[in-house]
């Protein structure tokens, strides 16, 4: 089936203004008759909930955290892009769009990139107004820096804590509405199912994480702003509780999943050095502005870094990509790292990392300047590894990071279920097959504060006069019962193996089979292994602890169950997309120089999946949406 | 390495709670205290027991979800460091480490090491925000904020909301947390225009939920975000300013 993206026609660069002009409105006095459920309080969720409430709608906001401020967005370090073009380095909306579309390897929608660019300046203004202390020049104007994949300086930042400052401001924007009584806030509640009645999303089932009680929350529309699923790889740069469940449960109720295999592996994560290490901490890639990446020329060279003379170091990114060097986009940098590691040049105790070296930068700029620029990151590194990056090069490795895939949405951010919207990383928009650094915070903010508040009312305008469904309507009863029986089923297995074990094994299978590189053979093997783990899960899962109180094992088991299903779809999607593009590198499709070889003829399209039959053998159906490029003509991505 | 862990167990808020002592083997000094708890929980689960409940999320020192007492000190022995970044290298092989929930009247224990810190949120919800609707903000470059002011505001804005300051304070005062927010927002032109109202409502809420500050200074010693102790002076400064001006600006 061909999917309709419902993009506005006409010139791409005016699409958003035209769309806004055409959206239907809900009169001010009618707004309070509508209830909107927003799941998630990250940048996308907090922004949506706050703005919809400010417009006068009833909003219900849900998060599993004890406070909205803890949403995963808080962890972003690097910065947020905006095409404000205040400098003379020639930035512009069209250059932003070009970088974004090209950076995504022509697998994202051009018109959405235009919206991102167009709204970006307003995002910075809003954030500044609500209390983000952005870095400033000495004279007082906003300062910027540059990030991987672009040649201009368009990234706004607050030291190494941009995400934190944005998230705290967003949470306070939401708090203002909670305080004014316009948002009903449910903290420590996890969405475990979606309620679809009359073919429309009309509510969610939430589980109270303190008591285990399940409860329906009902409304006229549902916005999922539940973040990305990179944690499916077990160790990733994400917060430990980030998960796929909300999106996956929506999928199981009929929302298509778009390109789930597009996962970005961040090139500057900390390597795994011990079994019990719980994640791969991310080092901001802004470090690549001054740090130089290298490995020993000699495979297996185990001398300490500082004993390896200049002539015996391979600055492989600078060698292979002289124009961008250490600032090549993430997918290219991650793949290059994997190549040298696989070829035996990896460093560190497990030989699984590469060096990120500040020696030259310290010599050029002085230790103080480096400390001013990256001090807190250096501190964090020292803290995590016990090594001093001022004197010994850091060690970094690719780690699972950002999910470009997610719920399929049209230009209005509406999924294939009417009334169900997805915002931020939970959706699939903007980034194509690879996200440019600092574009994600922007997309979450654009969706939250600007897109959703325009598109949800457009949908609601068609439902004026319709009441919220009642708690005893059939769809609610069915969803409640199926949630209860799902948890009972998991609790009833009474096996020997805790959920973490399955998750860990799944992560290993995915890193190997559907990681930085993929092959048809590897994917088929991975699918078989995933099915194996899944069947063992249903036979031998052990959930310890009480059911009527906090039970983190049960929460975890539900999330792992969803991962075990999504993982299979991820591999099916990677197998099906028989080309290389961005973060999706199929070894069968590479140029003689080892670069990704896209196949625009067959694959300039979005794959969106439907699945059925999970109680037995799942059946996957692919729907497609063709991609067209007007302002940024298709071209080979070359960073040399 | 190996550690003996004396860990607090409490099934429900109403229970009395008690210490349970366990040995955790095969640890690496580079692991965090929380990763040690992960490992200990795995042992407990495999023995058929109820794992120790504790909170964490980012494990990168930024979300503020983690927070426990390690050897009676909020977060742990290393200063300026949240629990998720406290490393086992701070301890000697074979040492006994005591792990408890944050202790404060404002934080009821939910289960084991997990406490309810909603009082912190309530204070922020009362007034820790700025009244600007999306899309109505002026160009961020029009209001000049000098480099030094922006950096200073950021020093205060760095609070991760972990609540360790309250747990460290003999009076259970939240003045470091509160002062950090008041200071941060007082330094930026648009947020500063609502200073009076903000101080008024936040302080009223805080007075109800937390103890008074009597300048012990314990808070800043355990703060993982390095919020300067001078933050507490903003509480009185903003209180005075609001009272003297008698209007909400
Ligand atoms: C370490 C790190 C650094 C990064 N740095 C940058 C950067 O410098 N620049 C950049 O642009 N991007 C960066 N990113 C990416 C960016 O931070 C994220 O893509 C973005 O913040 C996602 O925002 P969000 O609002 O979509 O979701 P999140 O912030 O992840 O919010 C998800 C919300 O959903 C809630 N939730 C999820 N599931 C449920 C459920 N079932 N029930 C109830 N609630 C639920 C959570 O409680 C949370 O509130 C970084 C990411 C990481 C991991
Ligand atoms: S002031 Fe420091 S100790 Fe207190 S909540 Fe903030 S970060 Fe935690
Ligand atoms: S887990 Fe986020 S600060 Fe420790």
From TrEMBL, chain B:
Residues 150-179 form the 4Fe-4S ferredoxin-type domain. InterPro entries: 2Fe-2S_ferredoxin-like_sf, 2Fe2S_fd_BS, 4Fe4S_Fe-S-bd, 4Fe4S_Fe_S_CS, Beta-grasp_dom_sf, Helical_ferredxn, SDH/FRD_Iron-Sulfur, Succ_DH/fum_Rdtase_N. GO terms for molecular function: 2 iron, 2 sulfur cluster binding; electron transfer activity; metal ion binding. Belongs to the succinate dehydrogenase/fumarate reductase iron-sulfur protein family. Its cofactor is [3Fe-4S] cluster; [2Fe-2S] cluster. It comes from Flaviflexus ciconiae. Keywords: Iron, Iron-sulfur, Metal-binding. This is Succinate dehydrogenase/fumarate reductase iron-sulfur subunit. It comes from the Bacteria. GO terms for biological process: aerobic respiration; respiratory electron transport chain.
């Amino acid at each position: 089936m061909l999917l309709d993206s419902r993009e506005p026609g006409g010139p791409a660069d005016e699409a958003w203004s035209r769309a806004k002009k055409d959206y239907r409105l809900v009169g001010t006095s009618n707004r309070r008759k509508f209830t909107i459920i927003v799941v998630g309080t990250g940048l996308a969720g907090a922004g949506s909930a706050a703005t919809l409430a400010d417009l006068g709608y009833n909003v219900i906001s849900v998060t599993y955290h004890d406070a909205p401020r803890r949403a995963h967005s808080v962890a972003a370090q690097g910065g947020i892009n905006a095409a404000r073009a205040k400098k003379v380095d020639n930035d512009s909306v069209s250059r932003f769009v070009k970088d974004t579309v090209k950076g995504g390897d022509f697998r994202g929608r051009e018109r959405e990139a235009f919206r991102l660019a167009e709204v970006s300046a307003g995002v910075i203004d809003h954030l500044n107004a609500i209390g983000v202390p952005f870095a400033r020049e000495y004279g007082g104007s906003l300062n910027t820096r540059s990030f991987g994949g672009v040649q201009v300086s368009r990234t706004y930042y607050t030291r190494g804590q941009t995400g934190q400052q944005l998230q705290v401001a967003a949470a306070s924007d939401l708090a203002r509405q909670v305080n004014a009584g316009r948002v009903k806030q449910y903290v420590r509640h996890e969405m475990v199912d979606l309620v679809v009645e009359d073919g429309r999303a009309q509510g969610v089932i939430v589980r109270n994480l303190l008591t285990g009680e399940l409860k329906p929350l009902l409304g006229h529309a549902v916005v999922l702003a539940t973040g990305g699923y990179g944690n499916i790889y077990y160790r990733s740069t994400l917060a430990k509780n980030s998960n796929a469940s909300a999106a996956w449960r929506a999928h199981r109720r009929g929302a298509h999943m778009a390109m789930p295999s597009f996962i970005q592996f961040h090139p500057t994560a900390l390597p795994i050095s011990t079994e019990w290490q719980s994640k791969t901490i991310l080092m901001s890639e802004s470090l690549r502005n001054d740090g130089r990446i290298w490995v020993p020329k000699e495979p297996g060279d185990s001398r300490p870094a500082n004993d390896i003379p200049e002539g015996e170091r391979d600055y492989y990114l600078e060698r292979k990509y002289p124009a961008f060097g250490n600032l090549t986009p993430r997918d290219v940098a991650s793949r290059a790292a994997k190549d040298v590691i696989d070829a035996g040049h990896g460093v560190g105790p497990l030989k699984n990392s590469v060096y990120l070296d500040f020696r030259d930068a310290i010599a050029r700029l002085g230790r103080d300047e480096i400390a001013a620029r990256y001090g807190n990151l250096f501190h964090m590194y020292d803290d995590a590894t016990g090594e001093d990056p001022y004197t010994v090069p850091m060690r970094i490795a690719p780690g699972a990071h950002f999910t470009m895939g997610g719920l399929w949405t049209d230009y209005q951010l509406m999924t294939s279920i009417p009334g169900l919207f997805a915002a931020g990383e939970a959706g699939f928009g903007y980034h194509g097959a690879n996200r440019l650094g600092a574009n994600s915070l922007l997309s979450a903010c654009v969706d939250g504060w600007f897109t959703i508040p325009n598109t949800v009312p457009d949908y609601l305008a068609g439902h004026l006069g319709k009441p919220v469904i009642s708690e005893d309507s059939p769809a609610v009863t069915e969803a409640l019962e199926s949630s209860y029986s799902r948890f009972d089923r998991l609790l009833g297995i009474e096996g020997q193996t805790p959920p973490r074990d399955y998750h860990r094994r799944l992560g290993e299978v995915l890193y190997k089979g559907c990681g930085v590189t993929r092959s048809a053979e590897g994917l088929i093997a991975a699918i078989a292994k995933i099915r194996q783990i899944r069947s063992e899960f249903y036979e031998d899962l052990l959930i310890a602890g009480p059911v009527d109180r906090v039970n983190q094992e049960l929460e975890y088991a539900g999330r792992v169950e969803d991962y075990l299903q999504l993982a299979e779809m991820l591999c099916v999607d990677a197998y099906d997309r028989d080309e290389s593009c961005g973060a999706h590198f199929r070894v069968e499709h590479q140029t003689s120089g080892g670069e990704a070889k896209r196949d625009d003829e067959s694959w300039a399209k979005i794959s969106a999946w439907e699945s059925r039959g999970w109680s037995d053998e799942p059946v996957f159906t692919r729907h497609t949406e063709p991609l067209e490029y007007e302002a940024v003509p298709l071209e080979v991505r070359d960073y040399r | 390495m190996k550690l003996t862990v004396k860990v607090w167990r409490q099934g429900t808020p109403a229970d009395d709670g008690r210490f349970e002592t366990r040995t955790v083997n095969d640890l690496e000094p580079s692991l965090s205290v929380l990763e040690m708890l992960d490992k200990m929980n795995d042992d407990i689960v495999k023995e058929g027991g109820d794992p120790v409940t504790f909170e964490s999320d980012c494990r990168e020192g930024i979300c503020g979800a983690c927070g426990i007492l390690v050897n009676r000190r909020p977060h742990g022995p290393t200063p300026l460091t949240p629990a998720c970044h406290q490393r086992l290298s701070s301890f000697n092989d074979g040492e006994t480490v005591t792990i408890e929930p944050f202790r404060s009247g404002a934080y009821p224990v939910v289960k084991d090491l997990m406490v309810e810190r909603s009082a912190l949120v309530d204070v922020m919800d009362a007034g820790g925000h700025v009244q600007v609707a999306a899309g109505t903000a002026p160009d961020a470059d029009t209001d000049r904020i000098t480099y030094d002011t922006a950096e200073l505001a950021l020093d205060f804005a760095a609070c991760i909301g972990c609540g360790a300051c309250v747990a460290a304070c003999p009076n259970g005062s939240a003045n470091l947390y509160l002062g950090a927010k008041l200071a941060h927002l007082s330094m930026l032109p648009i947020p500063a225009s609502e200073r009076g109202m903000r101080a008024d409502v936040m302080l009223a809420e805080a007075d109800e939920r937390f103890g008074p500050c009597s300048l012990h200074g314990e808070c800043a010693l355990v703060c993982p975000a390095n919020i300067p102790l001078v933050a507490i002076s903003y509480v009185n400064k903003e209180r005075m300013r609001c009272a003297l001006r008698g209007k909400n600006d």
